[in-house]
């Protein structure tokens, strides 16, 4: 039985090695003085220095954060209101709404990308930052709706009536009674939309224009031209941000689990 | 509670940015090149030319191979995760999710570094006197990229189902004289089947539609349907043919999704966070 437990550990270890090795190699090479990945020319922060001077990459990084924040916020607001509307509707209407909500999730990225590109061209909508934000709101919205809907279903329907009976106008009842209860769902949806936005390459690639890039587009165009150690540096920073953020969230969750 | 004004912004948004764009794709796929609308099926007919059928077939083949490898690698992982104690389970899942939160492009680019001619793997092999291998720009590299990127999509749905399984079922199976092997085949696996089906769709779908992995790790030598669509729009400017390919791809995906995971996608998505 002990041998079996070790086999399990070994297997998990190998899988984690598979998942992390490429990232660790990337991190390692970001500190390599040499441009070529073939040889190690000593520890250096050279590429980090060059990275901060690189207008294109820093601009792309700024765009990524800006697009993710704006689109996730907009998706959270519109999606939450939509979830309340869907929750309150009945019959075929409700089914249709839920099916349409799943459409962007099920649709392949590439089809979402080219279809939005065709729309922006047809409307002569200028392609760049705005078109990217609109596209990101569109694929973020469903994640907010499907995160909020289950929270609404868990609500006691009498709470809303009680608020009305106590004299709250409906709008106030929604904001002061319903919203605090569904807030965890709203937050989950926001986080999902934000992550999807930061991670997105395909849709952004098709709907952008005018030389506006997010980080993924910048990496793609550099990677196609071959080696660039600045990519390693920016990805290392990204990895530290992600791992740090996950660590903080996990600590928070553990703390609240202990309090419960 | 008849407050349907809440729906207006959403319905308007979804109509304009989801439904209308898809109708536009349908429009271009059916219209002859040139001004105005003239109904034609030539774009769809082209999809069935041998050259393009070969591309479609290659996409499906590589995606199927990747899905199978993800299943073989991922099922044991899901079982081990589900069987570990609660507290550790959470940390292990976080470890699994962290690489996924790295940019998708970043993960694919990382493999370029490892696989290239003077990359780390060849350096290591060189220590043992092995001649440098051509690993980058092969179909193997494309499959590897798909497995690396989408493995968690296989693990999480299976894990979600296995975790909910009542452990007394295993005891009952043992008490009734089944061997561990039989318990797995006759109890555990059938119960986990919905998770497996979701996992298969969630790996197969992005694999069959990708154009990034094949571009970066296949070096453009392994044209998949995604690459073909990209080329039609951004290089050949043949919107009609590109749209016809997109419609075919959409039908394939929606059919397989509808077939495999009848509406429980919501639950599986929840498992990802």
How would you sum up this structure in a few lines?
With 260 residues, chain A is mainly α.
Walk me through the structure:
The complex is a heterodimer of chains A (260) and B (273). Chain A is mostly helical. In chain A, 82% of the residues lie in helices and 0% in strands. In chain A, helix 1 (2-30) packs across helix 11 (229-259), helix 2 packs across helix 11 (229-259) and helix 7 crosses helix 8 (170-199). The relative contact order of chain A is 0.13. Helices cover 76% and strands 0% of the residues of chain B. Chain B has a domain at 63-226: MetI-like fold (Orthogonal Bundle), CATH 1.10.3720.10. With 273 residues, chain B is an all-alpha fold. The longest helix of chain B is centred in the N-terminal third of the chain and has 34 residues, at 50-83. Chain B is globular, with a radius of gyration of 23 Å. Chain B starts with 7 loop residues before the first helix and ends with a helix. Chain B is built from 13 helices and no strands. At the A-B interface, helix 1, helix 3, helix 4, helix 5 and helix 6 of A face helix 1, helix 3, helix 4, helix 5 and helix 9 of B.
Main sheet record of chain B = none
**Could you tell me which chain pair has the largest interface and how many residues each side has?**
A-B, 85 and 81 residues
* Rg calculated over all Cα atoms of chain B: 23 Å
Spatial gap, N to C terminus of chain B: 32 Å
What are the salient characteristics of this protein?
A: 260 residues, MetI-like fold, B: 273 residues, mainly alpha, disordered C terminus
């Amino acid at each position: 039985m002990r041998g079996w437990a070790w086999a399990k550990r070994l297997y998990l270890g190998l899988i984690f090695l598979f998942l992390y090795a490429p990232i660790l190699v990337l991190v390692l090479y970001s500190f390599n003085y040499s441009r070529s990945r073939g040889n190690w020319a000593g520890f250096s922060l050279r590429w980090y220095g060059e990275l901060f001077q690189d207008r294109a990459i820093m601009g792309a990084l700024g765009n990524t954060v800006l697009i993710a924040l704006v689109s996730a916020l907009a998706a959270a607001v519109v999606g939450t209101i939509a979830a309340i509307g869907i929750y309150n509707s009945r019959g075929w209407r409700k089914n249709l709404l839920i099916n349409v909500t799943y459409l962007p999730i099920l649709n392949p990225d590439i089809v979402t990308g080219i279809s939005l590109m065709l729309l922006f061209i047809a409307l002569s909508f200028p392609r760049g930052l705005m078109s990217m934000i609109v596209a990101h709101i569109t694929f973020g919205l469903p994640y907010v709706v499907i995160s909020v809907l289950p929270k609404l279903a868990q609500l006691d329907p009498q709470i809303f009536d009680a608020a009305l009976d106590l004299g709250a106008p409906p709008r106030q009842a929604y904001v002061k009674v319903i919203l605090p209860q569904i807030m965890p769902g709203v937050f989950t949806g926001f986080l999902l939309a934000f992550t999807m936005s930061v991670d997105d390459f395909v849709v952004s690639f098709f709907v952008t224009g005018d030389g506006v890039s997010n980080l993924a587009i910048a990496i793609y165009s550099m990677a196609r031209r071959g080696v660039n150690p600045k990519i390693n540096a920016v990805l290392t920073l990204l990895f530290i941000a992600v791992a740090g953020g996950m660590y903080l969230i996990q600590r928070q969750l553990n703390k609240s689990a202990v309090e419960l | 509670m008849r407050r349907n004004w809440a729906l207006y912004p959403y319905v308007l948004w979804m109509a304009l940015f989801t439904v209308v764009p898809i109708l536009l794709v349908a429009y271009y796929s059916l219209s002859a090149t040139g001004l105005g609308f003239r109904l034609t099926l030539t774009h769809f007919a082209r999809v069935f030319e041998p050259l393009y059928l070969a591309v479609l077939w290659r996409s499906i083949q590589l995606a199927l191979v990747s899905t199978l490898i993800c299943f073989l690698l991922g099922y044991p992982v899901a079982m081990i995760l589900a069987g570990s104690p609660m507290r550790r389970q959470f940390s292990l899942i976080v470890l699994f999710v962290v690489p996924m939160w790295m940019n998708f492009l970043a993960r694919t680019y990382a493999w370029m570094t490892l696989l290239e001619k003077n990359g780390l793997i060849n350096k290591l092999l060189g220590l043992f006197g092995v001649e440098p291998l051509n690993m980058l720009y092969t179909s193997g590299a494309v499959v590897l990229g798909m497995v690396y990127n989408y493995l968690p999509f296989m693990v999480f749905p299976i894990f979600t189902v296995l975790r909910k399984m009542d452990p007394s079922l295993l005891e009952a199976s043992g008490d009734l004289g089944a061997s561990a092997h039989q318990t797995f085949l006759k109890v555990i696996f059938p119960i986990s089947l919905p998770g497996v089906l979701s996992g298969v769709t969630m790996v197969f779908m992005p694999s069959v539609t990708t154009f990034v992995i094949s571009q970066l790790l296949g070096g453009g030598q392994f044209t998949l349907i995604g690459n073909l669509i990209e080329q039609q729009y951004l290089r050949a400017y043949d919107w009609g043919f590109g749209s016809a390919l997109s419609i075919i791809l959409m039908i394939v995906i929606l059919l397989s999704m509808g077939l495999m995971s009848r509406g429980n996608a919501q639950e599986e998505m929840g498992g990802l966070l």
